[in-house]
Amino acid sequence: MILTGQEYLESIRDGRTIYVGKERIADATRHPALAGGARTYAALYDLKAANRDIATFEENGERYSMYFLQPRSQEDLRRRNRVHRLIADFSFGLLGRSPDAVAGNLTGLAMNSAYFDSEPGGNRTNVRSIYEYVRKNDIFATYAIVPPPAARNKDYYQSGGIQSPSLRVTAETDDGVLLNGMKMLATGAAYAHEVLIGNVMPLAPDQKKEAITALVPLNLPGLSLWARRPFNTEATRIFDSPLTSRFDESDCMLVFRDVKVPWERVIVHDNPALSRNIYINTPAHVLANHQCMVRFSSKMRFMLAMASKLTQMTGARDIPAVRELLARLAAYEAGLSAMVDGQIERCQPANDGFTIFNRRYLYATLNWAMENHSMLIDTLRELMGGGHFQFPASIDVLEDPELRPVFETLWNAGTHGAVERMKLFKLAWDLVGSDHASRATSYEKFFVGPAFAVRNYNFIYAPWDELHALVDDLMAQYDALES
Question: Do 23 and 205 touch, CB atoms closer than 8 A?
Fold first, then answer.
């Protein structure tokens, strides 16, 4: 099944509970603060349906979204890359949690479902059936795989007799588990169909009841989504906030109060180590994060375009220092694109005849993006200077017959009219300085985990023995010559 945009919108009108402050929202597709995002995701589904050659594949007479393809060759990796690029370019790299993101995790888990039988508590059969379910129904899944900050001081709760707020299994029955507690941070949960709950941070051996990994429908009784303040509001104009109005994807804390999850939705239970290790010891982490870096390269391309357009409009583009800066940004963009492509060109074999993107190149790309996004945003901010603050608060000045001629005359800059200039600077500000932009900066720093964890992946997958051999072989050569 390949959903259309309208089918997608109907599918998320499912009675879920979303709180924005004290306001309870049952339908994200119609609420002024959330409807813009819902329309964007619907348009994305229509884009996918309209590009079946790139966005879908056929298997055993059934058609599925390409991001559920289990790659067995370098060409399969290229096919996955192309659909990620199609989706990322659609949002200019600004949708962190598009439907192809967590699809990579679920597909990767299924590619090594045997791993779930390696230790007690895993369920290979459920991993396979969940994968078949999500691809058959074109499911948009997000994830929440981190405990709330208050849950991380285990000693406090043990000494105070207070139960940790971390999500845990509080009861088990013949037909499922009962969940209570909180999980974070489910980006896109207001718009997704289901959420993968799990653990990407280490758990102590005695935290067995927190070691639960499952795919959970977002409309289950007792489950509520506590959203951050939406940046898009009823008063938001597309002209004044062109990115916020379309790409505010929401972030939600998930609160579980006696939520019943059927056993067939559980893939890890009562095994802390397994609950965390499933992502690294299967292709899940690689497939999911390749999508992230394709998205980031689309975003960087957009940032490079913005830098050039801004300096073109201000007349600074051909100043030698500015030209050199643009050249440096162009080199960064080309280099990052090459790092993404290198993950395909130096692909690696995986278990059971599968093929995955190059892990080492992937983690190097993740590290580069994490370390340099803020620098790129600051560079754009410098290039636009104070231009944004020189314009009226809103383009609604055009609606006033007295204000309009004043604006169009005094804000005119020769070759660039007042409206044209304001349009570009509003767009630039929404990319670098708005609430939406600030949230995106934090997202790029932390979505993949803390910096030390990303660098640790680079340490783990560096070929230290090969590198040491370069030095050892050289020393052996001149030792032999001297003997």
Answer: no
Structure-token match 């879908």, residue found: 56
User: Which amino acid, residue 179?
Assistant: L
Within 8 A by CB and 6+ apart from 110, the residues are 70, 127, 128, 130, 131
**CB–CB of 347/357 below 8 Å?**
yes
Element (H, E) at 288: helix 284-314
Residue 159 in this model has a pLDDT that exceeds 50: no
Residues 59-93 as b/e (b if ≥16 CB within 10 A, e otherwise) read: eeeeebbbbbbbbeeeebbebbbbbbbbbbbbbbb
C-beta of residue 326 within 8 angstroms of C-beta of residue 146 = no
Give bridge partners of residue 173 from the DSSP assignment. 176
Structure pTM?
Answer: 0.94
d(CA 337, CA 353): 27
Strand-strand pairing, 266-269 and 194-197: unpaired
How far is Cα 179 from Cα 224, in angstroms, rounded to an integer?
12
Give the pLDDT confidence score for residue 151 in this predicted structure: 63
Residue 95 in this model has a pLDDT that exceeds 70? yes
Q: Minimal CA–CA distance to 424: which of 311, 258, 267?
A: 311
Which pLDDT score is estimated for 451?
82
Q: How many whole angstroms separate alpha carbon 203 and alpha carbon 217?
A: 25
User: Residues 191, 38: contact at Cβ < 8 Å?
Assistant: yes
Domains and their CATH numbers in the chain? 284-464 (1.20.140.10)
The number of beta carbons lying within 10 Å of the beta carbon of residue 181 is 23
Task: Name the residue type at position 438.
Answer: S
* Residues paired with 226 in a beta bridge: 19, 253
- 243 vs 479, more confident: 243
Q: Residue 251 contacts by C-beta under 8 Å, 6 or more apart in sequence?
A: 185, 186, 187, 189, 227, 228, 439
- 3-state DSSP assignment of residue 323: helix
pLDDT classification of 453: cutoffs 50, 70, 90: confident
Peptide bond into 185 cis (omega under 30): yes
State the DSSP string of 54-121: HHEEEETTEEEEGGG----SHHHHHHHHHHHHHHHHHTTT--TT-HHHHHHHHHHHHHTGGGGGSSTT
Q: Which residue has the tokens 């370390």?
A: 371
